[in-house]
């Protein structure tokens, strides 16, 4: 039994060597003694792979039995009849009780067949998955499959699936579907009718030859979107969607998937949810579909890197299988799902989420720009913004609330405040062996604990503001204002996380920074024209001209002197907001705000330049003009434009705008320390307020 795990490794090595040995006339291999593929060095494997590729290009074909033979040799080989069961020396096995069990035994790997340029067919037996990496468009031609919890049936529109290398690989799994009382012949006739508009005769014959009841037929197509094209146009980011790695199984399936733009992955690299996560998800879907006690409010909490976002995406997809829409409240500033980082937003989701956040940036119903990826220095402003956004929830569909991974010290107290404020019906608490200890947030625990700004029922402590004053403007609060706590209780659902991929504390910050930059690039990808039009670099697009006296300015994350505020705005990521105050009437500008307002954010853009003579801001944004008419405030936060936008765009020649080696860290706002000023030196230098493009010095 101890040697049993080594047996699967021996099979592929032997079969690969046999393919190379039978291809000896084409490969012109030397007459050296036979060696195991596992004993070959890296250079030897590379030479073998190159020779196999040369043979494939020369016209060789891969046989169904895994052997390589040239087409000429196949034509000269005489046809022989298959041995009959009676003449077979081995006894025939007993018939299986399940009619599909024999088919599953003879087909352990889903067969893939090319169906033209950029297209491939996948025949999936029941409950068998196809794990892959890359991006493609998935169409279910017959049967029913499931991707990331979302069910795709025959006749439904195609879905764009993004299985990137920054997240866990996705899989297409055939699921059970209801069929009428028909025999296999009638089912094949029905499948042939459905496949006729999409496939040619040869492909249909191949599918019908391998057809089995309750199987599913999937069409995979090459996919390119403007967002993907924009992201991969920057050097170093193409690996997000496609990675070239050495492989030793060069066959027709490999080339078919390569033409689509994907690659088969091992099942262990795919998404695997724990039993507790699946059980909690099943219960939440059941409660959301019943609607006995109204629409449920589901709050998901836990430490960093325990799978909260993955659980939320899968839950959204499973809910969309039964209901038309799901509301989503984003309270995580660092790793937002549908918006650029630094936002608190409320969205109504009607389409499945089949990829990472940077592939599905969407316009929220209500959004506030906090301006930082953490609220540790200003939790009061954060909780006020959550209250402002949550007031727009209409309770017409289930609500999923995503929270931050900060669950220690004040973060835990802030989470208790959120539970009291939002009054969820279900709290899904994630935990893992590597995460920090977090107490179970039962209703009794939340009632007995003081939050950061709220008081418990058993203790009276004057700490911050009272919850009744804190929630007096919410429509759903009907309890008496005199009560120190407004909390109706919830059901706690504990989920044990066990993900194979985990970020270490050393690379967590850099990995999250990459994901935030990808989210910003995904948002800027909306500026690109639709495919198949060519890609347009950002420096070639025409920006909007905004007069100084039409918008107000505010720097959120730092204390900047008024004489240098235009330096901070230039070449920055700005939130396009709408405040209630009327900023018109000022003859000159810029108009500066003394405090950060809590207001609606309609979108984002880049302040590409500032014209001091005409007193204009040049803003580049994908927000439509009809929405831009309502913008009267520009907020600048700690979220920055990715460096690749400045340094790695196509078409840049000579000196690069906004890139300089001569940078003055003594300017107010240039230091990372908030409020660090050197007023005496700034007054002595008397730098002019006119901003200009800094150019790289030689």
TrEMBL record:
Domain Clp1 P-loop, chain residue ranges per copy: 302-435
Cellular component, GO, one term: nucleolus
Pfam families xrefs: CLP1_P (PF16575), Cupin_NOL9 (PF24419), NOL9_C (PF25467)
Region of interest (Disordered), residue spans: 73-109, 674-698
Skewed-composition ranges (Pro residues): 86-96
EC number(s) given by UniProt: 2.7.1.78
Swiss-Prot/TrEMBL catalytic activity: a 5'-end dephospho-2'-deoxyribonucleoside-DNA + ATP = a 5'-end 5'-phospho-2'-deoxyribonucleoside-DNA + ADP + H(+); a 5'-end dephospho-ribonucleoside-RNA + ATP = a 5'-end 5'-phospho-ribonucleoside-RNA + ADP + H(+)
Domain of life of the source: Eukaryota
Domain NOL9 C-terminal: 540-642
Domain NOL9 N-terminal per the UniProt entry, residue ranges: 121-243
UniProt KW keywords: Acetylation, ATP-binding, Isopeptide bond, Kinase, Nucleotide-binding, Nucleus, RNA-binding, rRNA processing, Transferase, Ubl conjugation
Gene3D superfamilies, sorted: P-loop containing nucleotide triphosphate hydrolases
InterPro entries according to UniProt: Clp1/Grc3, CLP1_P, NOL9_C, NOL9_N, P-loop_NTPase
Basic and acidic residues composition bias: residue spans: 674-688
Localization per record: Nucleus, Nucleolus
Gene Ontology MF term list: ATP binding; ATP-dependent polydeoxyribonucleotide 5'-hydroxyl-kinase activity; polynucleotide 5'-hydroxyl-kinase activity; RNA binding
Its biological purpose: Polynucleotide kinase that can phosphorylate the 5'-hydroxyl groups of single-stranded and double-stranded RNA and DNA substrates. Involved in rRNA processing and its kinase activity is required for the processing of the 32S precursor into 5.8S and 28S rRNAs, more specifically for the generation of the major 5.8S(S) form. Required for the efficient pre-rRNA processing of internal transcribed spacer 2 (ITS2). Associates with LAS1L to form an ITS2 pre-rRNA endonuclease-kinase complex and is responsible for the transport of this complex into the nucleolus.
Recorded family membership: Belongs to the Clp1 family. NOL9/GRC3 subfamily.
Protein name as annotated: Polynucleotide 5'-hydroxyl-kinase NOL9
Lineage, broadest ranks: Eukaryota, Metazoa, Chordata, Craniata, Vertebrata
